[in-house]
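## retry 2 of 3
previous attempt timed out at serialization; input unchanged, resubmitting
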Amino acid sequence: MVSAVLLLAALAFADEQLTFTARWMGVTAGRAIATTVVQGDVREVTVTAKNATWLDGLYPIDDRMVSEGRSAGGSIRYQTWFREGRFTQDQDMLFSPTGQHVDRRQLVDGAWKASTSDRTNSDGQLPEDPISAFYRIREAGLKVGERLLLDVYNGKRVVPVVVDCVRRQALGDIEVRFVSIRSGRDGDFDGGIDLFLTDADVPALAVLPTRAGPVRIEVE
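## retry succeeded, writing output
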């Protein structure tokens, strides 16, 4: 669900709010809201996600993520508050040309455990956070056959991400572009993400693999 929620931030560099529904095996599994506020050349996106009520007793989810990204590309700050089943973790990641600093708290056996980590940039470039990366994909306006390469910091390491605009196709009564998102390095994540963008570069659908089967993220 965390990976799915990160897709919900693929919005324009403008104030905007979108609501998405996650469906698993045709059943509504949860809902998320992505709210964008732009001030100057900084875009702040707040994503909240909650499970459907029928999952309360199985795997409750109450997540929030805040991404601050630059119009020129690169993240400034990425904060996460994950509440998923028994997993409870808060993270605050600061980005700069010289590196990334992460403050992390995780609830383990009823007690909060804090840690910090740092990564040094060798090239002086600002990577994206997982949410701001999807803005870059949308803003690229990829045409069929075009490719976009991104460096995405996931809180532990920078992951090279390869984005390919594969084809145009029908999706219901609209025409979309099928965009394949994959790791550029073996072992980073399995299955990738299938993203379907309208001609206005709005995400109409995303399909994510999970151990329990694919999850469809649909805009309401």
